[in-house]
Amino acid sequence: MPCPGCCRSGGDSISLDNDVWVDVHALRRWLVDAAEGRQAERGAEPADGRAELLPGWYDDWVIFEQERLNQQRLLSLEAIAKTKLEVGDFGHAEQAATAALGIEPLRETACVLLVRALLGAGNRALALQTFERFRALLSEELAIEPSVELAELVGVRPVAAKAFASPPSRTLGIAPLPAAGPRRGRVEARATVQPRSGVAPWGTGRG
User: Fold this and answer.
1) What is the pTM of this model?
2) CATH for 107
3) In the predicted structure, residue 169 carries a pLDDT above the cut 70
4) Structural domain tally of the chain?
5) Domain extent for 39
């Protein structure tokens, strides 16, 4: 369908006219305003974790812009959650942190904010369930444990780091210095390796 006045061209380029309203531009302004504590622009998409840029498009430039928008949404949502936690608005803090985890389920900073919001609202059981789900996901995807900070928030003892045994060491024996002989009066020192039982010294072989 023709849309007169929507586009403009100049030289070898074509772009949308400045008067055309673009939802992703409005969303980005909303995210900046919300993250900085300013009232969101009316009509813009709320930062609820569902906004997508050109879903179903897989061109390289689209994928790059999708990732860039997701990162901006993540940072803004976490900033919103922190601000709401500071003023005791645990409900909106929970919403923002949940939206951030919806974008990146392995993002621990978002999980910490969500657990803090749940605890602040008195939902201790739900906070523990959230931690356990995140813990299982980390174990399955990355084979790692949550941070000490997150574990201590819900009263779970952090898993101790595995102690790796140091490799066995060999002792270096220093032979006693021989008395000075007639050969120009030099004193010679020899360093020898004392092997353990059944192990040949370094640098020796059968021959």
Assistant:
1) 0.63
2) 1.25.40.10
3) no
4) 1
5) 16-153
Provide DSSP, the chain. Answer: ---TTSEEEETTEEEE-TTS--HHHHHHHHHHHHHTTPPPPTTSPPSSS---SSTT---HHHHHHHHHHHHHHHHHHHHHHHHHHHTT-HHHHHHHHHHHHHH-TT-HHHHHHHHHHHHHTT-HHHHHHHHHHHHHHHHHHHS----HHHHHHTTPPPPPPPPPPPPP---EEEPPPPPP-TTTT-----EEE-PPTT-PPTT----
| Residue 120 within a domain | yes
* Span 64-119, pLDDT tens digits: 888 888 898 899 899 989 999 999 999 999 999 999 999 999 999 999 999 999 99
In a domain, 43, yes or no: yes
